[in-house]
Amino acid sequence: MSGLVDAADPIALSLNIMRRLPPNRIEQNLSGLLNLCPKMTDELLQRVDQPLETSTGAGRPFILSDYNRDGDSYRSPWTNEYAPHIEDGFKPSQKLRALEVQANEIFDSYRELYYEGGISSAYLWDLEEQEGGFAGCFLIKKDVTEDKYVKKGSWNSIHVVEASPPSNGKSTYKLTTTIMVNMDTTGRECGATNLAGSMTRQTEQTTVVNDTTSPHLTNIGKMIEDMEIEMRSNMHGLYLLKTSQVVNNVRTAYMGPKQGTDHTKILSESVAKHGAQRKIDSDRK
User: For the range 104-109, what are the long-range contacts, defined as Cβ-Cβ under 8 Å and sequence gap of 24 or more?
Assistant: First the structure.
């Protein structure tokens, strides 16, 4: 039946469990699941998105992910070198590396304009099965601490793109975007509150590859920008507005119990009836 998880598929069952666990504890939840099912480690690590981490060594910081990892080393998009250093780490072709350098410069400007902080990284790699095609990921991470309204929070954007080789002057782009947000607030207005969630969306477009300097980056950048605007709006409505609506429906904005109109009317009628009865008894005396 559609909508039901296949009981014979352990991967589907595991993903179903992950969707029902607290999203602000993804790492702990996944670690516990991997301890129970070690044979599914590689598959689950590829299927479950986790909050991004950043480099801590010398040089310009960059984002660590499976897309720039080779063994226990990670490739910097700025230097194209691995840290810790390895001799034969995977690197993009010379032509694609030039495009990757441009992508990082453009995406870094995009991050600064939209997020006013944080760290961004872009990684590209060749597709062996499609000559002239490539894939890439565009990552953004921004942490917030001791803000006016948020004690601690983070925003993680993961954009994975696949670009087909140009055909008849057009290329097809497949974009998968995951956004993870986590906020902790403390204050007299709302108390101690945690709001966390994630959202994944996919889209595909076939677009003309023109004669500009970086036609692929122009097309991909527009798709990412449109996707982020749409998903930010959806997350605002799904998490913030919906949470506010629920809180407003359950909170009491007045002190003590409040009587309804019907209840007040019944009490008034009872008091009036009782007063009229006492007047009759008094007249009889």
Answer: 104/77, 104/78, 106/214, 106/217, 106/221, 107/138, 107/140, 107/221
**Cβ pair 163, 216 in contact under 8 A:** yes
Q: Are 52 and 121 in contact (CB under 8 A)?
A: no
Measured CA to CA in angstroms, residue 7 lies from 4, 14, 20, 35, 203 at distances of: 9, 10, 17, 20, 29
Q: Nearest Cα to 214, choosing from 171, 153, 150, 265? A: 171
Give the predicted TM-score (pTM) of the model.
0.77
* Span 139-173, pLDDT tens digits: 999 998 877 777 888 999 999 999 998 888 889 99
Beta strand spans in the chain (E): 53-54, 63-64, 69-70, 73-75, 82-83, 119-126, 134-145, 152-163, 170-185, 193-208
